Automatic annotation (TrEMBL):
<feature type="region of interest" description="Disordered">
    <location>
        <begin position="124"/>
        <end position="156"/>
    </location>
</feature>
<dbReference type="GO" id="GO:0003735">
    <property type="term" value="F:structural constituent of ribosome"/>
</dbReference>
<feature type="region of interest" description="Disordered">
    <location>
        <begin position="209"/>
        <end position="229"/>
    </location>
</feature>
<protein>
    <recommendedName>
        <fullName>Large ribosomal subunit protein bL17</fullName>
    </recommendedName>
</protein>
<dbReference type="Pfam" id="PF01196">
    <property type="entry name" value="Ribosomal_L17"/>
</dbReference>
<dbReference type="GO" id="GO:0022625">
    <property type="term" value="C:cytosolic large ribosomal subunit"/>
</dbReference>
<keyword id="KW-0689">Ribosomal protein</keyword>
<comment type="subunit">
    <text>Part of the 50S ribosomal subunit. Contacts protein L32.</text>
</comment>
<comment type="similarity">
    <text>Belongs to the bacterial ribosomal protein bL17 family.</text>
</comment>
<feature type="compositionally biased region" description="Basic residues">
    <location>
        <begin position="125"/>
        <end position="139"/>
    </location>
</feature>
<dbReference type="InterPro" id="IPR047859">
    <property type="entry name" value="Ribosomal_bL17_CS"/>
</dbReference>
<keyword id="KW-0687">Ribonucleoprotein</keyword>
<dbReference type="GO" id="GO:0006412">
    <property type="term" value="P:translation"/>
</dbReference>
<dbReference type="InterPro" id="IPR036373">
    <property type="entry name" value="Ribosomal_bL17_sf"/>
</dbReference>
<dbReference type="InterPro" id="IPR000456">
    <property type="entry name" value="Ribosomal_bL17"/>
</dbReference>
Length: 229
């Protein structure tokens, strides 16, 4: 006849006690930590660590033994594929019990039982950790180094803005900056509005928002002199 477990039995019968511990183990593996009474946590701890040891083995027989106690297949899958691999290099001590104080009402001592962090990372985690710094460095380098085209645009804009007040240089593709509609030609010192017959044929070397800005910069409107006819 098997020797009874020392201490008070959980539940009203051995079957009930077995069901209680199975449910507690399921919740522990599903959530990583649970709050329960000190008596239940002390009985749960050896059962949970035994299951983690079986998960580390990973063979079919170990999986069948665990499934006799844990009926949720998704929890068993997490136990064998994630938790077991997480503690692959740890010899034991997979859980931790922390005292929380007495429970209101019956003054039962409450504790928190949780899975501890692995001392050594699994092989997959080590590979991921090596790749992470390289990815972060590449992303930081990309953020620190602006595109060459943007730098060139900024330099050209600065030169033009310093030369003519209220003006802007063409974009890299030759298009007008936002809000600038008047084309200026530095060779002839003429500016063209949208009504000008030469507007579409003129390649702008400098852009202005308004005619007043172009005239203030020394440009004259195309078509107002005999040379433009």
């Amino acid at each position: 006849m098997p020797t009874p477990t020392k201490g008070a039995r959980l539940g009203g019968s051995p079957a009930h006690e077995k069901l209680i511990l199975s449910n507690l183990a399921t919740s522990l593996f599903e959530h990583g930590a649970i709050t329960t009474t000190a008596a239940k946590a002390k009985r749960l701890q050896p059962l949970a660590e035994s299951m983690i040891t079986k998960a580390k083995r990973g063979d079919l027989n170990s999986r069948r033994q665990v499934m006799k106690r844990i009926k949720d297949k998704s929890v068993v899958h997490v136990l064998f594929t994630e938790i077991g691999e997480r503690y692959a290099d740890r010899p034991g001590g997979y859980t931790r019990i922390t005292k929380l104080g007495p429970r209101k009402g019956d003054n039962a001592p409450m504790v928190k039982i949780e899975l501890v962090e692995a001392l050594a990372e699994s092989p997959k985690a080590k590979k991921a950790a090596k790749k992470a710094p390289a990815k972060k460095a590449a992303a930081k380098k990309a953020d620190a180094e602006p595109e060459v085209e943007d730098v060139q645009d900024e330099k050209v804009q600065d030169v033009v803005a310093g030369k003519y007040e209220g003006s802007a240089a063409p974009n890299a593709d030759g298009s007008a900056p936002a809000g600038f509609v008047i084309k200026g030609n530095e060779n002839s010192m003429k500016y063209h509005t949208a009504e000008s017959p030469w507007y579409d044929q003129t390649e702008a070397e400098v852009w202005f928002k308004e005619e007043a800005d172009a005239e203030a910069a020394g440009f004259t409107k195309a078509g107002e002199t005999e040379d433009d006819k």
